User: Fold this.
Amino acid sequence: MSLRFDQPAILLLGLAVAALAVFSWRWLATMDRLRRTVVVSLRSVVLLSLVVMLAGPRTVREHNDLTVIGVLDLSGSVKQFAQLPPVPDLGRPSTVEYLRRWFRQATQTRAADDRFGLIVFDGEATVISVPVRGEYVDDNLDVSIADGTNIAGAIRLALAMFPADTARRIVLVSDGNQTAGDALDAAREAAAGVAGRADSGHAIHAAVPIDVVPIAYEVTGDVQVVRVESPPTARPGQTVSVRIVLEATAPIGGTLHLRCEGQPVDINGAAAGSSRKIHVPAGRSVQLAQVILGETTIHRFEATFEADDPRADALAVNNRAESFTATPGRGTVLVLDRNGIEALNPLAGALRQADIPVQVRPPQALGEDLLSLQRYDLIILDNVAAFEFSGLQQTLLSRYVHDLGGGLIMVGGEQGFGAGGWNGTDVEKILPLELDPPKELRLAGAALVLVLDKSGSMNQHVAGTRTTQQRIANEAAALAIESLRRETLVGVVTFDFFAHVHVELQRNDDPRRITERIRAITSDGGTNLEPALQAAHRMLRGIDAKKKLVVCLSDGRSHTTEFDDLVNAMVADGIRITTIAVGDDADHETLKHIAELGGGTFHAVRNPRSLPRVLVDSVQVINTPLLKESPFVPVVRPTGSTLTIGLQGAPPLGGLVITTARTDPTVTVEMTHPDGEPLLAHWQAGLGRVAAFTSDAEGGWSNEWVQWPGYGTFWAQLVVVV
Assistant:
């Protein structure tokens, strides 16, 4: 260790301090010798201290520790076309295995205190091994994260991983064929240095060298479907020309397929089969097809090419392309309900009797792009919960109405509106109702405690991906919390061999803060459920709530298996227990017994990917205070609307979901409960219209309405208005 100064020239001011000391000694000649010595010495020490501080003293410790981070390109071009030499005794291993061996061999020569980390990337980067002394992991190297090649993102991730107390170096292995980011900019950032701190605490910047190992690649032969061209609009029944543009590096034979809305189109003329055998010349060529359009609003064309010799076609992923043709005409009403069977949906039957084209589908059948929704004039959400749809689908429903001018009707029931967890979603923003009603309208509150397994077994990867069971469970718990109302009390207990109160019982008025903590849960340790249930019991025992629920999730077998006394005590305190067993190794028998004894429901989840839906569905019982289930006669408001003609004599309904109308003056409330809660409301949302009917339409609360002669007329009028 040595002492150095950032500004050594300032030390020359020490000469001035010496001159000042001599001057002071003479100036204070009238003092006695002892006092004069003390004064001059103190002044000199203070001034010399200031000079030394201004010079920036620091200690420098030299060491030979080195951190190297490998940045490995595993994009499609490297995996498929890398030109790598053969390996003795192995011949030509896969590209991934070759590079794995190369990096592993390189780490064998490092010193004891050196560290080595590994990042792999394609369109995005992920960390395989963190640079820690003595540890290097290269399992599960063959990952696919996103399409493309982003070298810059991988370099920046490496820069962020370096520890502050070692020398740093990056080894980049890539073909350089980047499709996103700017690798040169990232390299300049590395050359500018990574911020750190020296032993003295001073900020320093050390340049990070990047060693590049280029990988040569060669595409020997390939054919691609460049694009499909079709008219943007046409009339139903019209014959249109579809142009399929192909490009090949060398002549190749194969089969061309064309589909319209997923159905094969006959492009083979009088010959057998619908596909066309073609010979694609080198360069660009065009194939033509004549297609008669049907009655649907959107015709989506998909062309694919299948080579006779797959070895002559290097990239099969570029052998397809799409286009679409719009055929404006009479649109269709899409009814989404949990069954997806028209015969079981009286609302769909009433619309068809009114000569309105209708399709009934389950929520999972909703498309995940706006084009697939554009074929419908109106979408009806018939008593379906928000968790049945992905976040993307919820956003698309909102955009379908607001941006494309589509119509939307939400129909209530036990899974509708706030009872179905629609609060806080993009769909709620376009509804004419507020789903979190004022406190005075809400029934008694509820409390939920999630008991989540965080043992080491939860760190298992799911279906060969890098996603763990813990991560899926965390996300499922977060979605469950987000689906609950703001006044609901929520808490989270995690357990391994011990119990941990991860989130204290609190109002759900800031779901984002709570879910951030849930998503940070990590796995470790054994499995012991009893302490976690005891903690949940303590959290809920003294709470004054109409409903108290514990949802317990585990993938293993608890150290303790006798729970009868504890569960009976919880039931005596008004607590209901639902259990979820994840995977085949969970103790299904014990968890099922706990649920039966605790008055809840047992769910056996074999595929962890379905866990979010199961967990969100399990907590929806907490939202039932938003249901008002007692017979009532609808109150028709004097709006003069054609929607309420003939409804004065309508039979009673059995219940509705409690909501309140927005204060926006464009909202029209046509019918209400006698207590004032909205039953039917509608408004303009962007370019489209949205209506809300807070009772149901399938014969539960509306059993007498389904038998009423005016049932079909009411729904047909509402569909026409929206």
The radius of gyration is 35 Å. DSSP finds 17 helices and 35 strands in the chain. The CA atoms of residues 74 and 405 lie 43 Å apart. Residues 2-60 form one domain.
